[in-house]
Amino acid sequence: VQLVESGGGLVQPGGSLRLSCTASGHIFAINGMAWYRQAPGKEREWVAGITIGGRINYADGVKGRFTISRDNAFSSLYLQMNSLKPDDTAVYYCNAATARASYWGQGTQVTVSS
Question: Counting CB atoms within 10 angstroms of each CB, which of 46, 70, 73, 92 has the fewest?
Fold first, then answer.
């Protein structure tokens, strides 16, 4: 499975961005996808996830501001980010899980600054 993220950029506090992740390869094997992020000097952290059955979960710090979604085939994953804060600044990574492995994209930079 190959993953490519896009949609990052510079946004002012309170603004919005929509991240996209395009999956290719053996996407039929994917049973869940998620977004993670890694801020400078910090460990990578889970942000939101969605299962093949449609179950969605969010990290406490993004609930009510971020929305994860996908297409039915798991070929695309999205993260709508609203009311962005400077603490949301990080490289955002797309992750896909199969029964055998976990796959990562290269990441897309999100910077929230005035």
Answer: 73
